[in-house]
Amino acid sequence: MGFKMGIVGLPNVGKSTLFNALTKTASAQAANFPFCTIEPNVGEVGVPDARLDKLAAIAQSKQIIPTRMTFVDIAGLVKGASQGEGLGNQFLANIRETDAIAHVLRCFEDGDVTHVDGRVDPVTDAEVIETELMLADLESIEKRRANLVRKLKGNDKEAQQQDRLLAAAQAMLEDGKPARLVEVDAEDAKAWKMLQLLTTKPVLYVCNVGESESVEGNAHSAKVAEMAAAQGNSHVIISAQIEEEISQLDSDEAQMFLEEMGLAEAGLDRLIRAGYELLHLETYFTVGPKEARAWTIRAGTAAPQAAGVIHGDFEKGFIRAETIAYDDFIACDGEQGAKEAGKMRAEGKSYVVKDGDVLHFLFNT
To answer: Is the dihedral of CA 334, 339, 343, 346 positive or negative?
Structure first.
């Protein structure tokens, strides 16, 4: 599995520019007016991971296949979107299908680019979007609870669980807080996720700064960092303008450009890493002469479920996993060296896969 991140923000904050750069496409029309993105644009990118290249070099793999991350560019929300203002309802529905939300916030000053409210205030912008998502959730909850009345009278246990969770979310939202702050027990986790409330999505704030501020940020991004820390959310500093320029260069030129700008890595790498941390994702590898491939799992995934990411039959017929830690694979110069050094282990169904594991699954067909 990869994961899907919805890119949201007010009009003219640099969302489409960032999306175009990240996916190296021009499918999202970047323009200096609201609602330039009429349909959500979806782009997939390979997740950069230097470990994969090293594994492939040792195994002399013919093909390198990174895991994938999906970006969904969702058109600019405005105040009143929850009531259908702008093109709100359509876009709110698109957000429901994502795993996480990246709030792109305008943290740059530019008189040539119009702000929808005529000022640069990223914290207020974030509050506007959060409020619209909360209002949309409240409306959804009220309708859904009304539709559950008949089942509740019939003592339907599933309906009782759903109504209890919706009531908890409603109370949190009416207190002016997002539903993600509701504490959910393990036995309710699946049902809670099925509610698909907008404000249960993890949030990553993306501070879009000017070119000269891409390393340290500025006063605007500092305020966002303070807000994110208070909420327990994450933030990254990115210059969409720089990312757009990098997307037009080959890898060597891009690296030189980054060095000239004083940046250790591209914004895409930082954004993906922050997204992985936000969703508690990890990567394991399968390596051989045919291909070296990365696979994404959630932290805490057991070996059979990790095998199921490749194919359902791997999980159903799971016997064991032959496991080599990434560092051991590199130090021992590959699988054979790891075997001879006693670094390959046979693990059963209870084994929890670790980030960087090199795995080979044995299963019954």
So the answer is: positive
